[in-house]
Amino acid sequence: MLAPGLRDLQAKPAFPASICFQRNSYLREQYSSKGVRVLVSRRHYNLPPLTTLSAFEAAARHLSFKNAAQELSVTPGAVSHQIKALEGDLGAALFQRRHRGVDLTEDGRVLFDALSSSFVRISKVLETIRDRSSSASVTVGSTTAVAALWLSPIIIDFWREMPDVSVSQLSQDRPFRDRPDIDFFIRYGRDRDASLNHTPLYRDHLIPVASPEMAQKLVGKSLEGLAQQRLIHLESDDRTWTTWPDWFHQLGYRGAIPAESRVDSYSVALQMARRGAGLALGWARLIRPMLESGKLVPVGPYQISAPNQFYLVGRPDDELSSSALALKEWILHEVRGSSV
């Protein structure tokens, strides 16, 4: 007779009767220890449950149920149960139980050799997939201005040379905090997180810049005269950025400095200066493309060396993927190859 839960399956089989009880079909007939006929689902490859194979492989490798249990984080009883289930499914003994351990039977050795070599191949394939998905991608962060004016052209050149590497850029005008998804980011000044690796890039120079028309009108202006112009102030949560008051103070000017225009994005400050809305504090190397194109023009001979350097900040090199290290070296090469 059929087990109670399978009477409906006998009355209305899910598959044609001609294949229900054929060997290697989706359903096969099996009798329980009490002689009850049941229908057991058969997998595509006609394999027993993978948990039984995993338990057997570990036990056969260690020749110990106890050590296999420790590896699999289960009890020795659980390992023994899985192996008995596997032996029951195969109808063959896989181990010879001895007083001080176990040995493999001939069937057990054949099965272990097949499983061991198969698991090694699977492991190598999985490792390749993991490496391909992780090491072939890099995530780098920066401010929007750094991305647009300096970093993006470098990454484009890198892509052309290494098209198989996927580079993601994250641009934001606020400090990068608690972002484990970022391999490294460009930062002016040192980050407060001392555990991060800081690789110096360059030290920039700060100059006042304006539209060509405004710059022409301000030729010959003194520091005091410049201080009276409309200055575009950048407000940031990151206090390491040099401000207009810092700039004038380093040049020895101690007078009043109006703050009529305030923005929270350096890109916006540069656009306002381009359109004649005031003076922006220009980072000479960073905005070099705009200076070379004539969209912005230095105002006067005044400049200072930036108090802080730009850094590549991120995880230590031994924690970076090969692709991340390749991009990092590319950026450093670009820095060394161009003059300040």
Automatic annotation (TrEMBL):
What the entry lists under InterPro entries is as follows: LysR-type_TF_proteobact-type, LysR_HTH_N, LysR_subst-bd, WH-like_DNA-bd_sf, WH_DNA-bd_sf
Q: Which GO terms describe its molecular function?
A: DNA-binding transcription factor activity; sequence-specific DNA binding
Name under which the protein is recorded: LysR family transcriptional regulator
| Record GO biological process | DNA-templated transcription
Kindly name one Pfam family recorded for this protein. HTH_1
The HTH lysR-type domain is annotated at 48-105
The organism's superkingdom is given as Bacteria
Coiled-coil annotation reads none
The UniProt family comment states: Belongs to the LysR transcriptional regulatory family.
PANTHER family referenced in this protein's UniProt entry, alphabetically: HTH-TYPE TRANSCRIPTIONAL REGULATOR (PTHR30537), HTH-TYPE TRANSCRIPTIONAL REGULATOR TRPI (PTHR30537:SF74)
